[in-house]
């Protein structure tokens, strides 16, 4: 068993102002994505400039925050929302959903595409390789905050989380940081270095994230107020990943089919 590094979730405290590591992780994620997007934008015939990159980062940040909160409330705690609709705005209590954040970013990309006269999938194909960067830092933030831990385990790398009871558990946040963050980033970055048919990069992101998240859910502790869904053997996260994977496979197929028809 490994010792959990009990890090203070507050990174900086100045008087009444407290800056949490989780918030800093968001800033790091968007900051690095901004740098890499500008690098890609400077490539010949990219069709992107610095102003567009800045706007896309801003639109995406709003989509992540608003969609992430709304998704958590609707997908994971709808009953509480029905009892108290204003709880939707209680962001200080925590609670963010990746799938909600994804829907928020999709909405943001639609608005961005209309503003700049780009196709929706041209925007998502450009931005998709950067999403795992935010996922990596976000999961590290979860780990530092001692939240979203894994199921009880006797693995030699299992840890006792302060909020997770006395038994050692899988550090599933680190599994997700590795798979959904580092591995998925490398896959998408390398794949998108060469011209690909429109929609293919976006589809690969959906498939990659869905598969990795589905796998990690087997060792991640389900939400206590939900437990296991779908006949008691799938988590809510796994159920939400299935349509992602299916839709991703569908648009990859359509992307290459359209390319072959135009050849």
TrEMBL record:
Task: Report residues binding a 1,2-diacyl-sn-glycero-3-phospho-(1'-sn-glycerol).
Answer: 139
Annotated TM spans: 19-36, 56-76, 96-113, 120-140, 174-191, 198-216, 236-256
The answer to whether UniProt assigns keyword Disulfide bond to this entry is no
Its primary localisation, in coarse terms, equals: membrane
The biological pathway it contributes to is:
Protein modification; lipoprotein biosynthesis (diacylglyceryl transfer)
According to the UniProt entry, its GO molecular function terms are: phosphatidylglycerol-prolipoprotein diacylglyceryl transferase activity
> What Enzyme Commission number(s) does the record list for this chain?
2.5.1.145
What GO terms fall under cellular component here?
Answer: plasma membrane
Check the record and name the Pfam families matching this protein: LGT
Q: Note the superkingdom of the native organism.
A: Bacteria
- What keywords appear on the UniProt entry? Cell membrane, Lipoprotein, Membrane, Transferase, Transmembrane, Transmembrane helix
Topology versus the membrane, per the UniProt entry? Multi-pass membrane protein
Provide the protein's localization.
Answer: Cell membrane
Q: Which InterPro entries match?
A: Lgt (IPR001640)
Coiled-coil regions listed in the entry: none
Biological role = Catalyzes the transfer of the diacylglyceryl group from phosphatidylglycerol to the sulfhydryl group of the N-terminal cysteine of a prolipoprotein, the first step in the formation of mature lipoproteins.
Q: Which PANTHER family match?
A: PHOSPHATIDYLGLYCEROL--PROLIPOPROTEIN DIACYLGLYCERYL TRANSFERASE (PTHR30589:SF0), PROLIPOPROTEIN DIACYLGLYCERYL TRANSFERASE (PTHR30589)
Instruction: Report what the protein is called.
Output: Phosphatidylglycerol--prolipoprotein diacylglyceryl transferase
């Amino acid at each position: 068993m490994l010792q959990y590094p009990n890090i203070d979730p507050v990174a900086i405290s100045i008087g009444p102002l407290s800056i949490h590591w989780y918030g800093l992780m968001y800033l790091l994620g968007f900051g690095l994505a901004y740098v890499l997007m500008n690098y890609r934008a400077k490539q010949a015939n990219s069709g992107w400039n610095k102003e567009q990159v800045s706007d896309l980062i801003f639109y995406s940040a709003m989509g992540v925050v608003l969609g992430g909160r709304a998704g958590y409330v609707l997908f994971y705690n709808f009953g509480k929302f029905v009892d108290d609709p204003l709880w939707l705005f209680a962001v200080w209590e925590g609670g963010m959903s990746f799938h909600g954040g994804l829907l928020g970013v999709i909405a943001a990309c639609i608005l961005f595409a209309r503003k700049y006269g780009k196709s929706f999938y041209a925007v998502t194909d450009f931005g998709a390789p950067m999403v795992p960067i935010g996922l990596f830092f976000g999961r590290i933030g979860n780990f530092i905050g001692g939240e979203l831990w894994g199921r009880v385990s006797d693995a030699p790398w299992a840890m006792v989380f302060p909020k997770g009871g006395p038994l050692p558990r899988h550090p599933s946040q680190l599994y997700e940081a590795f798979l959904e963050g580092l591995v998925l980033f490398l896959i998408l970055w390398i794949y998108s270095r060469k011209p690909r048919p429109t929609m293919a990069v976006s589809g690969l992101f959906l498939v990659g994230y869905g598969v990795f998240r589905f796998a990690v859910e087997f060792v991640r502790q389900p939400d206590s107020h939900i437990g296991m869904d779908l006949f008691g053997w799938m988590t809510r996260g796994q159920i939400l990943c299935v349509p992602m994977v299916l839709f991703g496979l569908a648009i990859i197929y359509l992307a290459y089919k359209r390319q072959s028809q135009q050849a």
